[in-house]
Structure formats: C-alpha cells, structure tokens
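User: Quick sanity check before I run a bigger batch. Here is a single chain. Can you write out its predicted 3D structure?
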Amino acid sequence: MRAGGHSVALIDASSPMGERITSYLLDDLTEALPVYARLADVATPELVRSTAGEKIFRCDTALLAHDLQDPAPAHHAAAEVAPETRVYALAHLKDRAGTGAAASFSQLEALCEAAGAHWMGGLVVCGNELVLPAAGSPRMGWRRRWVSEPLDQLIIALLAGTSTGTLMARPGTVLWACRNVLLGKRS
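Assistant: Done. Predicted structure follows.
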C-alpha cells in the first residue's frame, strides 16, 4: 500500500435545520472512504471531525459539509482555513434543481482564494428530504444510489487530491414522483 499521509478535516458547518442530513452524509462518506482507499491502494487519510469556527491547521484537506439554505457557517469556515489547504464542499438543499448552488460555491471559491487555500469543488445533494428516509436501504439500491454514486466521486477526488468541479446529486424522476409515499405523506 502506498503512503498517503494526509489528513482531512470534516467540518460540520450545518445549521440546526440541516444538521441531521449533514451528519448522515458525513457518516456515509466516512464509512465508504476507507473502502475506496483500499481499492486505490492508498493509505486512508486521518479524518478529523470539526465544527465551523474551529481552526484546523494540521489538516491538508478540508471538507465543508453544510445546508445550502444557510451557507453562512460554511462561508465563515472557508475564510478561516489555513493557506495551501485543499477545500471541498458537501452541501445539500431541499430544492430538486439545485438553485443557488453555483452562487454559493462561487462564494466559497472566492473565500478560499482570499485565505490562500485551494478550492477543489464539491457535491450538492438536491432534494435532501429524500436522503434520510432512504438511510436504511442498500447503499447502491434504487433509493440511495442517486446520492451514493456522486458521493463516491467526491471520495475519489479527496483521496487523489484532485478537483471535482461541481457534482450534483438529484433524485430521478420516478423517485421524485414517489416522494410522498417514501416520506409517508398522503396525497
């Protein structure tokens, strides 16, 4: 196995409104990351859990996880990262189309640049109300795959230290059409 030696700060910059989804997405990433590291024959990076406002200077990579409906904590965290840090985002929002994601990521990029950090892109999970109801289903099953596959792309970029651009996870048409049933709501 090749040495990796890097560390990733997992910064939970979510508002109370989105903290359960943020926590779930971070847990899913944390569980899948060592599997991909093993498959890529690289050392699993050290993961350091943090919250917005904590300065993480010993990590060479930061992942800002947050709810796009309240991006202020993530923007504050991006302005505080150490110079030369690679910064990724894992964001979510209720809107299925991802409206506002590009503007928020552009702001994160500018804040990283001002801090001397490297913006590496990230993942936006749209239609986040469908994330938690699918949590108990298989990771690559029809209810979770729409999030799992782009999350895996983010994991691969984290391990390789490469840019992701802006990845979007959107529920498919059938899943979206069935959302009331999946959420236990009556029409």
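Strands lie at 7-12, 46-51, 61-67, 86-93, 118-126, 165-169.

User: Great, the batch can go ahead then.
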